[in-house]
Amino acid sequence: MASQYVRLEKALSLCQRDGQGPEPALKSASWGMGQIMGFNHQLVGYAAAVAMVDAMKAGEDAQLAAMAAFLHKNGLDQALVKRDWVAFARGYNGPQYWKNHYDVKLEQQYARFSSGSLPNLEVRTAQVALAYRGYAPGRIDGVLGPRTRTALRDFRIAAGLSAGDDLNGDTYQALCQRAGIDP
Fold first, then answer.
1. Which domains does the chain have, with CATH numbers?
2. Beta bridge partner(s), residue 37
3. Contact 182, 176 (CB under 8 A)
């Protein structure tokens, strides 16, 4: 992930050197939780890529709105409604979607979440805080799995909290405080 920022900085400096401003570099990168390419800025409601990036940096609401607009404008919302994972993956990830099994992954995640296994937002926040503090909670998915439990156990020991691998109130507060998150 850090290497992507280095590449973006290089692209931005090349654009600045050539007197183009940041727009070409920002159009060439994907942004937000939906990984919307900057060249889609008008499609998702922004006059320029820089405006889209600024909005996405401000918070998840703009990221979610851009992703929803992208899905709707490309007809992918209908593929979701129909649970046509192949059509959705092809439209969202391109014709080579099958190389990474995006359709299969979508179907699996739909089955997982529709069965009642919803992510817990406090667990998700704790996972972010653990990752920020250098622990390895695994995927930031809101699920208290084995890697998150191991990271919680290690954090609790290092923080001088009671032993355990669960996310109790004291552990959550300590994590948020140390990561600078307002719980």
1. 1-61 (no CATH), 74-118 (no CATH), 121-179 (1.10.101)
2. 30
3. yes
Cα–Cα nearest to 144, from 121, 160, 162: 121
pTM more than 0.70: no
For the record, the structure tokens of 116 come out as 């009642």
- Return the closest-CA partner of residue 86 out of 109, 73, 114, 105: 105
Buried b (16+ CB within 10 A) or exposed e, 23-55: bbbbbebebbebebbbebbebbbbebbbebbeb
C-alpha–C-alpha distance, residues 117 and 167, integer Å = 17
CB-based contacts of 50: which residues, under 8 Å, 6+ apart?
21, 22, 23, 26
Q: Which helix (H) or strand (E) holds 33?
A: none
- Nearest CA among 72, 76, 106, 108 for reference residue 91: 76
The pLDDT tens digits of the residues spanning 2-55 come to 677 788 888 878 878 888 889 998 999 999 999 999 999 999 999 999 999 999
